Amino acid sequence: MPHLRHWLAGTAFVVIALSHTAALAQADAGGPISTPDAAQPAEAPATPDAAQPAEAQTARTTPADPALAAKAKAAAEGLSPQVQDVQIVGPWSDGTVEGVWRTVMVQSQTDDSAFHFFVQQLEGAGSDLSVRATTEVAEINQIDGTVVGYRADEPSEEQPNSLTLFFDILPSDGEIAETYELHFFPGEPYSFGPATN
């Protein structure tokens, strides 16, 4: 819970800072910052039509469907405590079929310092997704180090259903992270190893 408190405190600070930034940015660079005088009429706020697109207005004013909120909560609560990271890392397409790539990092049940890394190919769009395939990248669990981050590269136009990930891995006996790369092609063996460039 201490991490949550720090995150909430940091978020509150950022929100407060950003809310004052607009007023400071509008002030004359050389003059004092002034507040509106009670005798001066306040500027009329922008109308919702001018300020936001119609979809944003609807989403903001429509109350959440309790049944959908309950399903979303159940999905979040259904995640195993061993699941440490889940990310959507990019789109894929194969002819008329398309979807997204998802990665899942799961902590080992027998060793707190060991992790299993999975690449999933999800088919569909929006909330209508299904798991098409799941593959474990076993080599990640065999590296003597810690994954400190990873990022996806854009798929190539020649192979729009491929996935390339770059991993920053801190060796257990080192201070500088090393980069590894994963090249994943559906239906073919993946390649994983130290980055070549």
Q: Give, in order, the helices and strands.
A: HHHHEEEEHEEEE
Q: Briefly note the structural class of the backbone.
A: alpha+beta
Q: Give me the number of helical elements.
A: 5
Strand content: 35-45%
Spatial ordering of strands, largest sheet: 1-2-3-4
- Quick check: average pLDDT? 75
Spans where pLDDT lies below 50 across 5 or more residues: 1-50
What is the tally of beta strands? 8
Q: What share of the residues lie within helices?
A: 25-40%
Task: Characterize the biggest β-sheet.
Answer: 4 strands, antiparallel
Describe the global form: globular
Radius of gyration: 24 Å
Cα-to-Cα separation, first versus last residue: 40 Å
Protein name: DNA topoisomerase IV subunit B
Region (Disordered): 29-73
Keywords: Signal
Biased composition (Low complexity): 63-73
Summarize the structure.
The protein is of the alpha+beta class. It contains 5 helices and 8 strands. The protein has a domain of 124 residues.
Structure description:
Residues 1-25 form the signal peptide. There is one protein chain. With 197 residues, this protein is of the alpha+beta class. The protein has a domain at 71-194. The chain has five helices and eight strands, in the order H-H-H-H-E-E-E-E-H-E-E-E-E. It has helices spanning 2-26, 48-51, 54-61, 66-77, 139-142, and strands at residues 83-94, 97-107, 115-125, 128-136, 145-153, 163-171, 178-184, 191-194. The strands form two sheets. The protein has a four-stranded antiparallel sheet with strand order 1-2-3-4, with no helix packed on it. A four-stranded antiparallel sheet has the order 5-6-7-8, with no helix packed on it. Strand 1 and strand 2 form a beta hairpin. The protein starts with a helix and ends with a strand.
